[in-house]
Structure formats: C-alpha cells, structure tokens
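[Automated response] Your request has been received and processed.

Submitted sequence:
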Amino acid sequence: MADLISVGECLIELSSEKPLANSEIFQKSYAGDTLNVISMASALGVSCGYITRVGKDPFAEYLISSWKNQLIDTSQVKLVPGYNAIHFISLLSEGNREFVYYRKNSAASTLCKEDIDEQFIVNSKILHLSAICQAISETSNESILFAAQIAKKNQVKISFDTNLRLNLTSSKNALKNINKILPYVDIIFPSYPDESFNLLKLKSKKDVAQYFLDQGVKLVVLKCGNEGATVVSKDSTFSVQSISPNGVLDTSGAGDAFVGGFLYGQINKMTTIESSKYGIACSGLKVGGFGALKSQPSKNDVLKQINNIEIVHQ
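Generated structure:
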C-alpha cells in the first residue's frame, strides 16, 4: 500500500548547460511535477505510488525501472501504444532557463477515468494532484476530478498544486478547471506572486489565501520562491524563511521538492510548522544542484537543516 499517491505526467528531460541552439551534448533524466513530489517524499521515507500512462517507446523501460528503483509503486502505471513526452532544458546565466516541450498527444495525455483504481486510492493517506494534469488533455482533466471524488468519498486527504503553465492553457481556462476541483481539496499549494496574480488577479497573500479558504480548502500553502512560504488556515498564519545552504544553481522542481517535504510531514502527523520546515529544507537544498530530480536531497541532508529554518508568526 502507498501512503502518498500522485496522478500525472512524467516527461523525459534532456538538459544542457549551454543555450539549446549551441548544445551538442544533453544529459538524460526525467521530470514531471507530481512525479517530482513523490520522488522527494519517497527519498524521505514515505511509501508512494504513481498513476500515469507510459508510451511503448525506447524510454519506457528507463522510466518504469527508475521509478521502481526509487521504491515508487508502479502497479497503476499503464504501458500503452504511443510515445513519452520530452522536454529540453538549458540552464543559462543568472539562473535563467530555456525550455522546449514535445508533449502533444503523448501517452500520459491519454490518461482517462478507467485508469483510476478506486481501491488503490482508498488505501492511501494523501492523494496529490496538479493543474498541469488538468491542462494536458480533457480525458486527463476528467481523470483527476474522478480521483478526487473517490478520495473525498473515502476520507483520503487531497493536496493540489495550482501549477499554471501558459504554454498549455490560458489563465481563464486554468482557473475554471481549478474551481471545479476545489470543493474536494484539503491542502492547496499556489505559487506567489506571479502565478496567483495571473490566475486570480489578486496581489496580496491574504486575499489569495482567502479566495481558496472561501472555496472550502482547509490549508493554503503559498510557495513564495526565495521568500520562503506562507501558510494560512482559518485559525492561523505564519511564514517560513527560505534557505539555500549550497547556493542557487537551478530552481527547476524546487516547488515540487517543497511539496514533497511538506506532505512527508503531514503523513507523519507533524504540525503545519514542522511540515513547512521539511518543505523549506527540501527545496532549499534542491536549488543547490542541477536538475529537478537529480539534486533532490537525502533525508540526512534535510535533517541537518531543520533547526536552521526560521518561523515568523503573523
């Protein structure tokens, strides 16, 4: 049984430290927001499972065997005809990045309601979902709403990341789909300020948090980049200061590492403050290396940073 389950899309990642136009050598890896989350949580010791589709191309064995090596339950990964999405990433100067995606009609985008096994979700503690999965196709959108309904019916906690990708959808359509799933969501992870403003046209943390609380979400965790995070419930508000003990080389997947650390705390019945510290430690260490997954920290490295994280009550 998996305590933390995610549903989503994983892409082959080909990365270079030069601009894509000048790159001759690329390093192979993989990444995807909901996969990144359970990868981080699994590294901390959470039993995790993944629901997705993988295309029968030369990358299929690499993906599935890699997830198994991370101790991720792949029993709900379906191997189907088609190809796996690919993205190229170049790390430019001053932390800037360059992305090119090839994902239209990929295997993961054909995910559908029939791929969601009710018993797999019922036996979990948290189901993690994302707006990216809503945006890649209508069947994928339907599948995560269906998964959320199953979880809610069976009192499985639901976490949701509002990850807005304007190369996949418009702010208007993204918000429409997000609003459909909010009645089922317990914990939400919006990015602030740019994403929140693009989605909601709201500028203050208080207003953004209140929007989601008014929709029935119990806990709003604002990911604020180098400003850390702000956590809001109906009863309290506090901020957690960011750390970067190894400097900042690559912010790819930092938000996902934060979510993985935070959900690790929740599954282990920690307070929201303790969970936030784990999230900050995971993201702060991840940005010190290259790659969304390759630079995710070990549990020992995370534990060494927990006492260095400051909390500000508001």
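Summary generated for your ticket: The radius of gyration is 18 Å. The CA atoms of residues 257 and 283 lie 5 Å apart.
If you did not submit this request, please reply to this message.
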